[in-house]
Amino acid sequence: MEEIELYHITCIEYPIGVVNPIEDLSFYHSKTLTDSRSWINDFLDENSPEDFPSRKKSFYACNTIANCKALKSTICNEADCIPRIYKVRMNNPIKVPMALVTHLFKLGEDNTVNTDIANEYWTPTEEWKFYEYLSEEMEIIEEMINSDVTPMGQILFWATNSNSLLADDAAKANNTFI
Fold first, then answer.
1. Beta bridge partners of 153
2. Residues 37, 130: Cα–Cα separation, whole Å
3. 20 to 30 A Cα–Cα from 134, which one of 26, 75, 81, 90?
4. Nearest of 119, 109, 97 to residue 37 by alpha carbon
5. Residue environment code for 19-34, b if the CB has 16+ CB neighbours within 10 A, otherwise e
6. What pTM did the predictor assign?
7. CA–CA separation, 114 vs 42, rounded Å?
8. SS in 3 state form for the chain?
9. Are the C-beta atoms of residues 67 and 130 closer than 8 Å to each other?
10. How far is CA 76 from CA 67, 71, 94, 141, in A?
């Protein structure tokens, strides 16, 4: 079994150690039930290889903290949510291109290319920039804590260059923002 360390973003406060498998629906999937995205998990699960985990019962992780931060608005978009990023360990996670989930959403439920997209999602043939990792088991190693609790400290912790809150490394060093 291949065991790798990844990062998981959530509103749930987990203790250090193994997290119990999801009995009903994942935190992420339960959030999609109130909007127009829930069909995507159903569709991808229906088109997945037999031995792959269900998106509806999986924990999701990213390979970098920056990628977790990019998901903050999707995962932690409710007022009472305190976003948390954990370093986690997963056994044999499935590595799939997250962009295709967004692409399915944009195309809509009845598009003729959706099955091709599902095939590429579960068994990628292209190189993708951003992957999500799915597993029905997860172990929490540690919470990635931002020790600077000032408002600017929080902004800098959650900001990434990918969302253009910071101009570049020189701007970060000089606290110059665009």
1. none
2. 19
3. 81
4. 109
5. beebeebbebbebbee
6. 0.76
7. 12
8. CCEEEEEEEECCCCCCEEECCCCCCCHHHHHHCCCCCHHHHHHHHHCCCCCCCCHHHCEEEECCHHHHHHCHHHHCCCCCCCCEEEEEEEECCEEEECHHHHHHHHHCCCCCCHHHHHHHHHCCCCCCCCEEEEECCEEEEEECCCCCCCHHHHHHHHCCHHHCCCCCHHHHHHCCCC
9. yes
10. 14, 8, 23, 21
